[in-house]
Design brief:
Two copies of one chain form a homodimer. Chain A is of the alpha/beta class. Helices cover 24% and strands 26% of the residues of chain A. In chain A, a hairpin with a 2-residue loop joins strand 13 and strand 14. The longest helix of chain A is centred in the last third of the chain and has 20 residues, at 259-278. Chain A starts with a strand and ends with a helix. The model of chain A has no long low-confidence stretch (mean pLDDT 90).
Chain lengths: 280, 280
């Protein structure tokens, strides 16, 4: 049982881990990719470092944590569940913790599909566990391609065996369901059915589950019932979400999207997490 | 006329200056010493830098700002005045700006003198401009030794020529007033007079002005009427003090006293300052 599992190995997650470790707490960091910073080439506005590549800074941070004895796992978190403690599931394993710090950055890989946003809550869902039951024994579509899609697919199989997987241009192996590899261009609703349109063909499903890219703050939020604002930032009060024990910081909670602010969030949140654990 | 004068060349001040400069604003940094960080030997919890000496980090920050074309002056700010714009006076010069960012760190050089705290507001004052008039033509004591003391002394001369300067162990030249160089050990009040006691002797004054060490957030606050909390942190709302155009961040506004939080304050405050200037 860890005191805290940090999800995300960017500035906010690593900064939190460094402070938690120094407070004498057992902390595990799980991070899959380099997030937004892997796109930035040069960073020249971070106090104390004149110029550095985004990827180099991330690597430096991970090394800094490792050198303090913090485990940083490169796994993809696909779910968080609550029982007596929190259970964080990756595509490989699952881990228990007293608290969680979500530092998954800003929403990424948002799909550029016409009609998707308009049909959210009206046939389009982002949470298999939440809404799968509504479409049991119906034809269920799911769009996505990574581990996160596979884990959502696993859930949907409980509700229906009439599944259509839209991989949106990616090849995905090892699934037996009907597969559409063409890029999806638009969706629309007709007679209570969702029409999923690729450049060559249209497919009809009763609903469409979105599980594209990595699970991020927004997707965790939908699964757990965490409150978000209208653009998907987690709503926090002193870095704690509406679920006691789940904290968040960095781009995931909004504010200026700057490295130094994300790192500071991690630091300040670590103080709050320490106090919260003390009070358990 | 600068867009912003940053007072303090530590993490918060320099980080603010970097962002302000990148927003295309004219910024001047005025900082006198290395503050709290000069006491820390090793810093090992700042994201992205595994280990660095406090003084080295400060120097690195100042160099980072200079390389961006930002002027960083090593002068001591002794007063801030308001007219059409803000006027920041140092011991050498004065500078005009549309906004001010106070990043002077935490209260330093607080005097360890028995009875001082108890007599605040009851004969002990931290602001010559505010309270000097109350003691006109009386015997006025002042305790301190640096440029800040000299600037407060200058103000007190307008109210009285019966002045006693307690240098508290430091030698101070070029003043004509009666001078006590012994270290002050305690003060107490007797018959409406303040008794200032050194190891060898006691001196009676009608009031005692404290102007020790550098002017910090607390002393600026008292001069300008900025609101502070009970421990002297400047009270801000979105980094702006109760005086429009005067912003503050870092240790001066409280919260966790960590470098990354101070640097983040500078960054986020810079956004607020930019927006404020745009609205002028």
């Amino acid at each position: 049982m860890f005191d805290c599992i940090v999800i995300g190995s960017g500035p906010s997650g690593i900064s939190a881990a460094i402070y938690l470790k120094r407070f004498g707490l057992d902390v595990l960091v799980i991070g899959k990719d380099y997030g937004t910073l892997s796109i930035n080439t040069k960073i020249e506005n971070y106090y104390g470092i004149e110029s550095i590549d985004g990827v180099d800074l991330i690597k430096k941070g991970i090394l800094q944590a490792s050198n303090l004895g913090i485990s940083v796992l490169e796994e993809e978190v696909v779910k968080i569940e609550m029982s007596d403690s929190f259970v964080v599931g990756t595509s490989i394993n699952s881990y228990n913790a007293k608290t969680i710090f979500i530092a998954t950055g800003m929403k990424r890989n948002s799909l550029n599909i016409k009609g998707l946003k308009e049909l959210e809550g009206s046939g389009v869902s982002y949470c298999a566990v939440c809404d799968g039951f509504l479409y049991r024994k119906k034809r269920i579509g799911i769009i996505g391609s990574g581990d996160y899609m596979l884990s959502e697919l696993e859930v949907l199989r409980r509700f229906s065996n009439d599944l259509v997987v839209f991989t949106n241009g990616e090849e995905v192996f090892d699934i037996n369901e009907f597969k559409v590899i063409d890029k999806v261009i638009s969706i629309n609703k007709e007679n209570d059915l969702i029409k999923v349109n690729t450049s060559s063909k249209s497919y009809e499903v009763n609903c469409l589950f979105v599980a594209a890219g990595m699970a991020n703050g927004t997707s965790f939020a939908r699964h757990l019932g965490l409150l978000t604002d209208e653009v998907g930032h987690l709503i926090v009060n002193d870095y704690m979400t509406n679920i006691p024990g789940i904290f968040a910081g960095g781009d995931a909670i909004g504010g200026v999207k700057q490295i130094v602010k994300a790192a500071s969030d991690g630091c300040v949140a670590a103080y709050k997490i320490k106090d919260y654990i003390k009070g358990l």
